Amino acid sequence: MMGLFFEPLYMYYMRKFFAGFAVFLGTIFTFHGFAMAYADVTDSHPYVTAISYFSTKGFIKGYDSDLFRPNKRINRAEFLKVLLVSLEKQVPMTVTEKCFTDVATDAWYAPYVCYAKDQGYVKGYDGGVFKPGNSLMVGEAVVLTAKVLEKELTQSEGDQWYSPALRAIGDMNALPQSFLYVNQPATRGEVVEMLWRLLTEQKTLSLSAQAADIDGAMCVSMGEELPDSMSGAAVREAWLKWINEARAAAGLSPYVLDMQLSRTATNWSNYSRARGYIDHKRSGQTAYYDYGRIMAWFESLGLTFVQVGRSGATENITWNIYSCSESDCTDELIKASRDGFNYFMSEKGKAYSPHYDSIMSSSFEIVGVGVAVDEAKRKFYLTVHYGTEITSDPPPVCPNS
Q: Which of the two ends of the chain, N or C, has the fewest CB atoms closer than 10 A to its terminal CB?
């Protein structure tokens, strides 16, 4: 005790510092070393431990911009590689013959796809194609995983093609809670979470989705086709914020962001991008804005609305050129789209003010925003749909779609 008492203070604090630093380093390099380097994966992210583990092991990598993109949809080829590598399958890296017509022998994913075919894990589609770039669906993810794990699957009456695998993976408490529908696109973060649970044999049932809740649950795709460097969700949140700020200043209640309207808005923006211009004209329409035809178009997509006065829904459109030299162009896209919102608001007090009136309507309750981008021309097309209460019962919109 006396020795400690007379220890020089600077030696005492140095010893404490290095002891604490050693613990700090141990913590970083055990789990959080790689995840902490990702700007989009914080300690509060639901899959931070799984992403850290997989990054540390080298099973999956981030992007050059220090992003992991956990919410990015993962395609069939990408998932197959992560699955086979994390389960330590001995995959030959040389491919001499095509195993599918759409899998070139020199493609980075060819060894994994061809190995999976040789092992009977995948069969492909009619016409001898694998569709490596297609988004991976939850049903596909669990079936592939169960096959590579060589799980014994039990078929029951009424089962779908994915049901036995879904039960098997669910029994292992490996279904992320964000798995809601069989046909929803799976993300990088979700599949890493699922595989991490399997590899580390996690037993916390409360953190796992239940197979019975997912089996048979189907959703409809929103159809968003933005580049990896852009977030449609961020654009929607920005527009909702601008609109509701304007409404609050006028003493109006806020709109609620609706994914069904975002789906129809995305549909129209995608169609406009394909044409190279945006307007309100549906097939056969001659008037610039034909309310009847537009409402019939909504109905063709499964949406009908409570009629308030003369309307149940309406549409605003805008387009602009954007610029971006960074790996994440979301901020530039939002900045460029603000011009459209400012134009809508500039109609206040004018004789013709359909865009401003839509923002300030007391009839509408919900709003949806959809954006499509022409990367070659650095041009975007943005549609805003406003509506009253939806009276139809469309399938839910798939997350991440």
A: N
DSSP category for residue 29: I
Q: Are 97 and 105 in contact (CB under 8 A)?
A: yes
Could you tell me if 150 and 365 are in contact, meaning their C-beta atoms sit under 8 angstroms apart? Answer: no
Which residue bears the tokens 């669906």? 137
pLDDT tens digits, one per residue of 270-327? 999 999 999 999 999 999 999 999 999 999 999 999 999 889 999 999 999 999 987 7
Contact status, residue 121 vs residue 147, Cβ threshold 8 Å: yes
| HSE-up (13 A, CA, CB side) for residue 97 | 3
Question: 3-class SS at 22?
Answer: helix
Tokens of 253: 């209640």
Rounded-to-5 percentages of helix, strand, coil across the chain: 40, 10, 45
For residue 13, give the H/E element and its range: helix 9-27
- Give the dihedral of Cα atoms 252, 253, 258, 264; nearest 10 deg: -20
**Which DSSP helix (H) or strand (E) runs through 259?**
helix 259-275
Structure tokens at 351: 């004789």
User: Which distant-in-sequence residues (6+ apart) come within 8 Å of 13 by Cβ?
Assistant: none
Determine the pLDDT at residue 393: 97
233-240 average pLDDT score: 97
Task: Please report which helix (H) or strand (E) contains residue 291, including its range.
Answer: helix 291-300
Amino acid at site 107: A
Instruction: Please state the φ and ψ torsions of residue 326, each to the nearest 5 degrees.
Output: -100, 170
pLDDT at residue 118 greater than cutoff 90: yes
Residues 387/361/316/285 CA torsion (nearest 10 deg): 70
**What is the pTM (predicted TM-score) of this model?**
0.83
With contact defined as beta carbons under 8 Å apart, do 262 and 397 qualify? yes
**Distance of alpha carbon 154 from its chain centroid, rounded?**
32
Q: Which helix (H) or strand (E) covers residue 344, if one does? A: helix 330-345
CA 196, CA 204: separation in Å to the nearest integer?
Answer: 13
* H/E stretch holding 256: strand 256-257
Q: Which residue type sits at 110? A: A
Name the percent of the chain lying above pLDDT 70. 91
